[in-house]
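Exercise 4. Each item below gives a protein and its sequence. For each, produce the structure-token representation.

Item: Glycerophosphoryl diester phosphodiesterase membrane domain-containing protein (Nonomuraea ferruginea).
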Amino acid sequence: MSDGHGSASERPSGWAAEQPPPYGAPPASPWTAPGSEQPPPSGPPPYEAGPQSGGQQSYGPPHGPYPQGQPYGYGPHPPALRPGIIPLRPLALGDIYDGTIKLIRSNPKAVLGLSAVAALLAAIPLAVGQGFVFGAVAPLMNDPAALQAEDPAGTYGMLGAQYVSAFVSYAISFVAVTVLTGVLTRILGRAVFGGKITTQEAWQTTRRRLPALFGVVGLLALIMLAPVAVMAAVLVVAFGTVAGGSPEAAGGLLLLFLLMIVLYIGYVFFFRTRFAFAPAAVVLEGRGPVDAMRRSWNLVTGDFWRVLGILFLTTLVVGLIASILQVPFMIAGMVIGLVGSGSVATIVIGSILVAVGGTLGAMITYPFEAGVAGLLYADRRMRGEAFDLVLQTAAIEQQRQGWVHSTADELWHPSNSAKS
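Answer:
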């Protein structure tokens, strides 16, 4: 397990000891040896001879007295470099959210376009399943007498369509969101320096990391689903024990179920926070699934509650925004699909509206959550590994050369950590 420094053997393939511009040695160092000649400064001298100094240098403030309460010799800190979407220093919550919005605005075609494709692929199966529901329920809404007729086959078919469509949607979402997370993380890694990357280039540099990304997501799915299997087994045993028993036993079973739900929610938040940076470690650092999860665990250590709070707040914010965008389309689709005549046209229109609502909601949710997780990862490295010094040095060199080279992606490797 690397502690953030790494060794030559740990670096990804293609990593050279002497990197190409802009990270190689500059042709002329801005520093000079002691005693050598210095070029004259281009600006005014910092200290000027005042009228009461007798022709000698005055070392007082050149622009009047210091403000009251400010110690002599201390001035405001210069602002941090900001070549891209974030300032290159440890980030506050506002910096993280502002940087995420700037990420989306700086490359909307790649970020929102890819997110829309992923969201639409996941929404289509749900819309198809909803169409079957509209087709089964609409005749009942228009014929009250049919509500009293029992139709087990139609009911089972409707439920089956819903469950099958939900399963297909989750499967597609699993693949699409995993790929999207990797591509968006690569775009974010370049946007920190103010560089842009095309969708094709982001895909070309990310696809080699997809097996490891799917490995991380698969391991997380196992971790999240393991307690569910245990909960189901406990409930089956408990239900069999209290079946036909007293009401007190049934009440105890209900309390047991509620307690397990509360514990499971805490379990999900804990592991989601601990492994939140694993995708970034896979894409930006070139790690394998297990090593990336270990890396995320170590980065979160020492700042768990802050990371948890920001991720939880982000979930609430994007959930609210997604609901505002999604609910009107969902309501319109259900009204047209259920209250309409039950024709093919109304069912199709209702299903399309449901798909549009789901796509709009997820199109905002996916990139915002991925952006916040990626910038939190950068923040933790700046706080724990002095990684802001690495980023600042690279940014100065990029500003000197006037462009952002593709080798900026390699700066995220932990061997570049400034922590000793």
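Check: Residues 83-416 form one domain.
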